[in-house]
Amino acid sequence: MGQSQTFSEQVTICVERLTESGIAALGGLFDLTSQRLVRYATTITRNQHDAEDAVQAALVQVARSTRKFCRAEQPWPYLLRMVRNEALLIARRKKRWTLAGSLSDLLTRRLVDELEMEETYRAVWSALRSLPTAQTEVVVLRIWEEMTFAQIAEVLELSPDTVASRYRYAMQKLTHKLDPADGKVSCV
Amino acid sequence: MSEFSRHDENRQPASAQLESIVRAAGGYIRPTDDLRPSTLEAARDACRQRRISRRFGGLAILVVLLAATGIPEFLFSSQRGKAFVRSSELHRRAAQNAVERGVGTNWALYEVFSELRREQADLLQHSD
Fold first, then answer.
1. Fewer C-beta within 10 Å: chain B N or C terminus?
2. Is A34's Cβ below 8 Å from some Cβ in B?
3. Can you tell me the distance from the alpha carbon of A87 to that of A58, in angstroms, rounded to the nearest whole number?
4. Domain A108-182 = CATH 2.40.30.10
5. Where are the domains of chain A?
6. Which of A111, A122, A105 has the alpha carbon at shortest distance from A178?
7. Of chain A residues 93-132, which have a CB less than 8 A from chain B?
């Protein structure tokens, strides 16, 4: 959890710079948060291009109402909520027809020493896409953003119990789909 | 915390393994290269638009305020122009009356004043 607090603090520092320097400091906020925001929005829109539109819309909103954003007590969960709202709007508006398990829209990072892991990563992303969005976003916030159930509940505006139960159901399904006990991970 | 949350604290090894597999896949995707410049450009445009609309908003408020205060003032001053007459003009009218009607200067001045008061009273009634 310490790492999450550190990241949250980094976002807070960026927001302070945004207050002082205005839009000139938006690049710093983008560099710090864009990858996390895009991957979170991708789990909602199920398409990376739409996710990037959502992230762009949210950051433009930040630039337009900097003071309001800077007044937020916890800027990182606030920014996640902004991106979520934009992603939900786009997802409702576009309703893309996608093949189940298709990852063709994703722009992936291919590091030489991680090539052998690529199959595993693809299996994880396919498995996440096969879950209902409500469950996927809980998994993403819990595992990738290292948030507590209480923090996730705040972002999603749900009760911590609901969040925890969604997480448990999602992990049960992922266990079934990815089957890590075999040692080999593949999306079933 | 709920039962689920407590349950989460005592994770099964398989669950922890699954979490670490999912965690590792978190860095698999990256934003496209043009997202940064396009976002910053869109943000700059939005700020520019906001500044322009603020300026126009301020200008519109100024125009409305000027109109709100200026029009009654203009109307009042135009009425006032009719209602108020310089004393030299009154003396000129009195001298003219005295010559034309063959009355004394004081009486002519009295009549000019009476006429002026009637005009002012009429204007006051119309302005209501």
1. C
2. yes
3. 9
4. no
5. 1-94, 108-182
6. A122
7. 106-109, 117-118, 120-122, 124-125, 128
